[in-house]
Specification:
single chain; about 300 residues; 2 domains; about 20% strand; transferase
Length: about 300
């Protein structure tokens, strides 16, 4: 049985209303508060982070001065005392049974190293229709209602959890914690990513299973600023580059590296191949291709 879960919220200049909601949903967890701890990591915010919660909820607030989500998560994990770690962003609303379900799944499957579930969007405003093609970039995922598990086979499994709500067995993190970390995640206002994928790969390579459990459900609060054409275009390009760099670092990249001097002509050819001028979706996909080229030229 899992005796203690460590919930880690990493935050940087948070929206106070969304952070308050994130904590409120943790307060409403069905799992007894004696069975989990809350660690909040302030990732060098420009002003003090204010924590609003009931007196019944105790928490530990630590500050990580090294900028970047990876640094913040590492600080939280190293401060954690639980057998399980749950990574929560400061705009994630966990359903009331989230922690209880996590404890149950990991108690029943002793080879389970990492897990996630459904991440449903909660938009402040109704987004334009084209955004649906890029939900995955916004950590929105719904793989259905069946439990799915995967092991390492030198490829990245589709069922792998993403950072929002990711549940990790502490014993599965030994190799990840002891490695030299490739910092791909967001630092300040950059939109690079991949730190959560790096965790999953290290867990898999260490011999653990990863899984998708649909009853691990949370809502992701998404403001209008993250649904704009400009934002998604930039996010797509930077995420694509980060993904390639990550795959190269683990020697599982399916594409060959390319000379940097070929970048301009490749991007021009891709502009026409994707018909990037024709609509927003095609333009964003072209930006993703440009990011991939940039990654392969590193």
């Amino acid at each position: 049985m899992i005796k203690l879960i460590s919930v880690i919220i990493s935050t940087y200049n948070p929206n106070q209303e969304k952070l308050d909601l994130t904590i409120k949903h943790l307060e409403e967890q069905s799992l007894s508060k004696d069975c989990w701890e809350l660690i909040i990591v302030d990732n060098n915010s420009s002003k003090d982070v204010k924590i609003n919660c009931s007196p019944a909820l105790s928490y530990q607030l630590i500050k990580e001065f090294k900028q970047g989500l990876t640094h913040a998560r590492l600080a939280g994990i190293r401060a954690a005392k639980g057998e399980l770690v749950v990574l929560v962003d400061d705009d994630n609303l966990l359903m009331p049974d989230y922690l209880e379900n996590a404890a149950s799944f990991f108690s029943a499957n002793l080879n389970l190293g990492a897990a996630g579930g459904k991440i449903l969007p909660a938009f402040d405003n109704e987004p334009e229709a084209w955004l649906a093609d890029f939900y995955e970039l916004l950590a929105i995922r719904n793989l259905g209602d069946e439990v799915m598990l995967a092991r390492w086979d030198n490829t990245y499994p589709k069922v792998s959890p993403v950072g929002a709500g990711m549940v990790l067995r502490m014993n599965a993190l030994t190799d990840y914690l002891n490695k030299e970390h490739l910092i791909l995640d967001r630092t300040g206002n950059t939109l690079s990513s991949g730190g959560d994928n790096d965790i999953v790969i290290e867990v898999l390579k260490a011999g653990w299973e990863v899984g998708y459990f649909p009853s691990l459900e949370l809502k992701h609060l998404i403001p209008p600023s993250r649904t704009t054409f400009k934002y998604i275009s930039k996010l797509t390009k930077e995420s694509s580059k980060s993904w390639v760099v990550l795959l190269l670092s683990h020697h599982i990249c399916p594409w060959k590296k390319i000379p940097r001097y070929t970048l301009p002509i490749r991007k021009i050819k891709a502009w026409f191949a994707y018909k990037a001028w024709s609509n927003k979706t095609n333009y964003i996909k072209w930006k993703g291709a440009c990011g991939t080229f940039d990654g392969l030229a590193t």
